[in-house]
Every structure is written in C-alpha cells, then in structure tokens.
Design a protein that fits this description.
Blueprint lengths: L14 H14 L11 H7 L4 E5 L9 E4 H12 L6 H17 L11 E2 L12 H9 L3 E5 L2 E2 L4 E2 L5 E2 L2 H4 L11 E2 L9 E6 H10 L3 E12 L5 E10 L2 E3 H8 L9 E6 L2 E6 L8 E2 H9 L4 H8 L4 E4 L18 E4 L6 E6 L6 H19 L6 E5 L3 H8 L7 E4 L2 E4 L2 H6 L3 H15 L7 H12 L5 H5 L8 H5 L4 H22 L7
Parallel strand pairs: 1-3, 6-15, 18-19, 19-21
Antiparallel strand pairs: 1-2, 4-5, 4-16, 7-8, 9-14, 10-11, 11-12, 13-14, 17-18, 20-21
Helix pairs in contact: 3-4, 3-5, 4-5, 4-9, 4-10, 11-14, 14-15, 15-18
Bound molecules: zinc ion (ZN) (2 copies).
C-alpha cells in the first residue's frame, strides 16, 4: 500500500490555506506540542497494551519486532503518508492504517508474526514528530462495519474515480469500497508511459504467457473507467485482467489501470491518471480535502461510506461478516506429535479435529502414492471467501493454495458446493508433495500430477486418449474466469495422465 514520493506537488497551491488551517490547529488544538515531541512511551501508554508483531516480507531476511499499536501507526504513517499533508488528512490515514492493522492481525500468523513490513501489508519508516502527533490524536480510533473492524484499502491517488474492491480483485465484495467520483483531481496532469510491443511481450512472458505479442487493446472498461480486460493478440491466453497486466508490467512503471492506449508502429503509448489500485481512501485526495478545510470524519466518510468511526476498545476483535482475519478467533488443534497443524476460525461450522482426520488420511494416501512426505503441514481453513482471497491473493473460484509447507483452504461450506473437502484436501497435499521435485518445470505438470494422484480411482484407459493442448503457466495462474480455470486444470490433468502413461514415473514428466 505504498505511496510513491513526489506525486503530490499540487498541494503547494493550497499552501496558504493549509498554513491557516495549521495555524488554527496549533493555537487551539495542539497545545501539547509546545511541551516537545511525542515520545515512544506516550505512544505505548496510548496503545493500552495492544501490540503489532512486525516481521520481514517473505523472501527477505530480518527479525521480528513487537511495536505498541500507536507507534506502529506513527511509523506506517511515515511510510505511507503524503509528507506535507494537512493534519486532517494525516489523521484520516492514521485511522485507516490502524483499522487495517487490527482487521488483519495475524495475516502472517503462519510466519509467527502479525504483519510484514512491505507493500504486501504496510510499509514502515522512522516515525516523525507529525506522524507521532497524528497517531496520538487518533489513538484507538478505527472504522467498523457491522460492529467489527472493517477490511479496508487505500492507495496513492484514484485519479478522479475510485474503483470498487471487486473490480480490482474479483470476489472481494465490500459495500463501503465502491465506485465514486473524487472531484478534487480535476487539475491533475495525466501521466504517460511508452513501451514497445517487445517490452510488453517480455513482461507477459515472465508472467507465464506464451506465444508472440502482435497487438494490444483494451477489450473492456469497468464502471470506474479503468481497463478491466486487455486483449493481447498473439499470446496465450489472449486476454489479461487489467490489474494483472499492471502487476506484470510493474505497479510503479504502469501507475494505474486508468489509462488509454495508442499504438504507433512498435510503440504502445499508455496515457493515464492516478497512482495505485484506487480502492478506498485516496491519499492525495484526502490531502486536497484537508487543505480545503474538510475534517477527519468528513474525509473518512467520503472514502469509506457506511463505516462507523469508533474505539478499538469497544469492539470485539473476533469478527464476523466480511472481515477477513484469522488472528484471535483461531482455535489451533495440534499436538506436538501430529504431522498436521490445523487452524480453523472459531466462527466456522467445522471442527479442527475433523479437518485433521481428513488431512492425515490424505497425507498417508498421497505420501505412499508419490513416495514423498512433508511434515509438519499447516492447514488454514478460512472463514470466508474474502479472507481466503485476501490471504492468498487468488481469485474467488480457487479452492486451495498449497505453498511450501502450508495449505490455505476456502471455507468448508464452499468446498462442499465444489469438489468436496476430501478431494480438495488430497489435491492440495499432493501439490505440496510434488512441488519440490517438480520445481522449475511448467506448472501444468505439478497441477496435473496433483489432480491425477488425488483421484480416488485412476482409470488408465483415459490417459491414452488424451490429445489436448497442455495449458501454459498463465492459463493456470492468471485465468480470467472460473470456467477458464476449470478448463486449464482439466487439460493439465489430461496432459499429465498422457505423459505418465508413457513412463509410469511422475518425476520424469517434463
Ligand atoms: Zn504482508
Ligand atoms: Zn482521489
């Protein structure tokens, strides 16, 4: 959720007014500042015992630190905020940062801490005098939805129109993260980016596309005006979702999906507005609103309509509804001897012991079929599709994600409507077991092998007739719909069965 530096030069124009607002603030509101900067211990006592365990982003090294909640807010505000924003904007962002931290506590529970220090969660810098003041001024204030800490997002600049959460991330439905005009951007200059077809081709190949890019055009825009889908002629798959395209190019290089495209020979020119995903609070917009006199509550109401500003101390941290958290509401069933560690939200209508039994049986079956074993395996059952999607970054139609020694599972009620818990568990465990031996090979081999061995009965006769095209990595990881995903996975399985029939050795399939 980073705010890149230097995107906010406009604030200068409102400087005089901002100065006036700041002067009034200094004279009538912020008198304690005269006694000196706010100290760590003041922030700690304002945290009322609440802490955030911050760890390194995955793949990076570093150690975990435990910060009092309000010092964490002050540090993230220094990392994510607009440097010269007026106090109301800074305080609104402090509330959003605190809400995010409380709602996502234990997002990294499997890693042994709460939140990481990268853009995956929230970026921290050294706290400054003004960020400490904003944290203290709003201490304990969070936004709630139906009485629980709200799952929310913010980005640098919406460019004039926010987009809803499900437009950016299909399956993420939050009524308070909606499409709305933000009229404070009227004078924003547009940005431009020139890329050659070759450069786009290379970026999409890195994301797993195959073929040769011939042309690119916007196939569909969403109601916020952003590119929802792009047609990439010559590549397989031939279409890519807007946000996935932006991630493939690089989220800082291609600032937003609010762009138009002009192609001139081999050069593709992107002209756009805004910076970031544009879901929820717009940090630049909040700064403009504060500069023209809007207070913290008005700014929050603009970007998070329908949420209640309240104290974290009056809120039950075990949440229901769209709030996606494991955290405090998790009951962990694991004995030291067990190879399977199961985490189930206590709100879920399922017992950890039942999941553990299914998992142990699947692990024994898959282990003997594949000749591989991994222990311990951590299985996280999510309480909602939204929380599953949030934790894994995968679309709503995905049932499980197996990574390293951990498995994330969609809610059991959802699995029951799909392939069922048993087969989903067998596939997920098989995928964990084959991941290392098949590392570096096309993804269809891993997916196909997992699905093939997870079958309860293997009919070898089917295998010989398979003549389907094996799916590319992108077809499996960036499918644009549930139907496309199902089709790609079925082809992966058929391709694997076809190859396996030749060698009878899954490690030899390439
Ligand atoms: Zn993170
Ligand atoms: Zn905006």
């Amino acid at each position: 959720m980073s705010l890149p530096a230097g995107v906010s030069a406009k604030a200068v124009r409102s400087c005089f007014f901002a100065f006036f607002v700041a002067l009034v603030f200094e004279l009538f509101v912020a008198s304690p500042r005269a006694q000196g900067d706010i100290t760590d211990s003041q922030l700690e006592s304002a945290s009322a015992g609440r802490v955030v365990r911050v760890g390194p982003a995955s793949g990076s090294t570093g150690r975990m630190t435990t910060l009092p909640l309000e010092l964490y807010v002050a540090r993230v505000l220094a990392g994510e905020g607009e440097p010269n924003a007026a106090d109301a904007a800074r305080q609104a962002l402090a509330v959003a940062i605190r809400t995010y931290a409380v709602a996502n506590a234990a997002r990294h529970g499997a890693d042994g801490f709460d939140l990481c220090d990268s853009t995956h969660c929230q970026v921290l810098r050294a706290a400054t005098a003004v960020t400490r003041r904003a944290a203290l001024a709003t201490a304990g204030r969070i936004l709630t939805y139906n009485g629980s800490p709200a799952q929310l997002f913010y980005s640098a600049s919406c460019g004039g129109y926010s987009q809803s959460a499900d437009q950016a991330w299909p399956g993420a439905e939050y009524p308070y993260l909606r499409v709305a005009p933000d009229e404070v951007h009227q004078d924003d200059p547009s940005w431009a980016l020139n890329l050659t077809l070759d450069e786009i081709d290379r970026a999409l190949k890195r994301a797993g596309f195959t073929g040769r890019l011939r042309s690119i055009r916007i196939a569909e825009r969403n109601t916020s005006g952003r590119a929802a889908r792009l047609e990439v002629a010559g590549l397989t798959p031939g279409v890519v979702a807007g946000e996935q395209f932006r991630m493939a190019i690089g989220p800082v290089t291609l600032r937003s999906t609010s762009f138009s495209i002009d192609t001139d020979g081999n050069v593709v020119r992107f002209t756009g507005r805004g910076f970031g995903h544009g879901v929820g609070m717009c940090v630049i917009g909040a700064g403009r609103r504060a500069a023209r006199g809007e207070n913290t509550a008005a700014i929050l109401a603009q970007y998070y309509p329908g949420l209640e500003l309240t104290s974290v101390n009056g809120v039950a941290v075990r949440a229901t509804g769209p709030v996606a958290r494991a955290g405090k509401s998790v009951d962990v069933t694991a004995t030291g001897a067990s190879a399977i560690l199961v985490r189930v939200p206590s709100s879920a209508n399922v017992r950890a012991g039942d999941i553990e039994r299914v998992a142990l049986r699947a692990h024994a079956d898959m282990g003997s079929a594949l000749g591989v074993s991994i222990a311990p395996i951590t299985i996280r059952v999510h309480e909602s599709v939204a929380s599953f999607r949030k934790a894994t970054g995968r679309p709503w139609w995905t049932s499980s994600v197996a990574d390293g020694t951990g498995i994330d599972l969609a809610p059991v009620s959802v699995l029951a409507e799909r392939d069922g818990l048993e087969i989903t568990m067998r596939r997920a465990i098989a995928e964990l077991l084959v991941a290392r031996p098949l590392q570096g090979r096309p993804i269809w081999i891993r997916v196909g092998a997992a699905r093939f061995f997870a079958r309860v009965k293997i009919a070898m006769s089917e295998a010989h007739t398979a003549t389907v095209r094996c799916p590319s990595d992108a077809e499996l990881t960036l499918a644009v719909s549930a139907a496309a995903q199902r089709d790609a996975e079925a082809r992966a399985e058929a391709c694997f069965a076809h190859e396996y029939a030749k060698h009878q050795d899954w490690r030899a399939v390439r």
